[in-house]
Amino acid sequence: MSLLQLGRVTRAVRLPDDTILPILHDVRLTVNAGERVSIVGRSGSGKSTLLNILGLLDTPTSGELLFDGTDVSQLSQRRRDRLRGDNVGFVFQQFNLLDGRTALENVVMPLMYATGREFWMRNRIAAEMLERVGLGHRINSMPSSLSGGEQQRVAIARALVRRPRLILADEPTGALDLETGHTVMALMDEIVREDGAALVTITHDPAIAERGDRHYRLEKGVLYSDARAVTETTPEVGA
Ligand SMILES: Nc1ncnc2c1ncn2[C@@H]1O[C@H](COP(=O)(O)OP(=O)(O)OP(=O)(O)O)[C@@H](O)[C@H]1O
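Above: inputs. Below: predicted complex with adenosine-5'-triphosphate.
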């Protein structure tokens, strides 16, 4: 069964003058466990809007959104939040680490919402995760004392510490130099593969998009398949 399934998803917002602004049009997308999907798109194409829907932060205006077979639109906000906390990890361009908290304290954060062993063993689990991203020696460092690449590795450890089944990376290399960006992506690929999770990377960088198993392009709210392989792309619209 697919992990995430979007069927004819649209998203529109009502503007102050009461007109409706359509942002996403009939988006169809399936993400399977263990798969790496990349989506490229220019500024304003609807990437953040789509990411918020994929990450269960927002719901479609119309269309179907299934997470592991569960119709997300039927869930209460509370159950949607729980589903997200248990299953989705986010990696952002600007790392979004909390200043004034150590690397360990940042990575422990998602485990505060866990139960049982995950909660009681949170410091050990977080320390192991930092070890896994190569920062076992920096667990007590403040983000401000770490390089950009190291900060993104802390952010990756934080995103993956609850072993989410879906990782959403929004311009994960946008604040890094070319080489560090690829090193960080390679690390994320490796951990994602080991854990059997799915990775959706949203980027404007074609070289980062290339790393995915399947490629899409978002243009003016329409998702086109295989942005890399074809010049004349087919929109993923309709049934
Ligand atoms: N709540 C809103 N009210 C009005 N317009 C909106 C709203 N949300 C998004 N938009 C518009 O919809 C379009 C897509 O927005 P979105 O933030 O998803 O784009 P994006 O591809 O993530 O852009 P960027 O890469 O610059 O962050 C933009 O033109 C944006 O101005």
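The pocket of adenosine-5'-triphosphate is lined by residues 13, 21, 23, 41, 43-49 (CB under 6 Å).
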